[in-house]
Design a protein that fits this description.
alpha+beta, 4 helices, globular
């Protein structure tokens, strides 16, 4: 009986290990345009991935790069928004379908995902600092 209990506990502890390819929180931010041009950063606990695509133009270009972030940078970012508040936001500009551009913030937290799309010049009340920091990170990654 003790061996069975020990086996169960070992399986439990090993099955609870975090999977680095499936972070608990994933923040995505960027721009998507109707003619197939866009750029986005995906931020997880330990890295930022950047991708830029221009597949809808005459000379298509796809660029991607990554860099690590520190625990303090990650914590700073998480402290700039409240996920409960974010989930109440209902922005869906859909400028993409009219050959315009949408700015996008998508947050996946555990199994919950919420996305907002809005005109690039829109400041969302309660998210201004978060939007500003995400834009700074996008510019940093573009120039990285």
């Amino acid at each position: 009986m003790k061996k069975l209990l020990l086996l169960f506990l070992l399986l439990f502890f090993f099955s609870c290990n975090d999977d680095p390819d499936n972070p608990d929180v994933l923040i995505e931010y960027g721009t998507e345009c109707g003619w197939g041009v866009g750029e986005i950063i995906s931020i997880s606990e330990d890295k930022i991935d950047y991708s830029k695509s221009s597949i809808g133009v005459e000379n298509p270009d796809i660029e991607s790069k990554s860099k690590s972030i520190s625990a303090s940078e990650w914590d700073e970012l998480l402290n700039l928004y409240d996920y409960g508040f974010f989930r109440t936001l209902d922005y869906n500009a859909m400028n993409v379908s009219f050959d315009g551009c949408d700015e996008i913030i998508r947050i996946t937290q555990l199994d919950n995902k919420h996305e907002i799309r809005y005109d690039p010049s829109t400041e969302i009340e309660g998210l201004e600092s978060f939007q500003e920091r995400l834009n700074e990170l996008l510019v940093e990654m573009r120039d990285y």
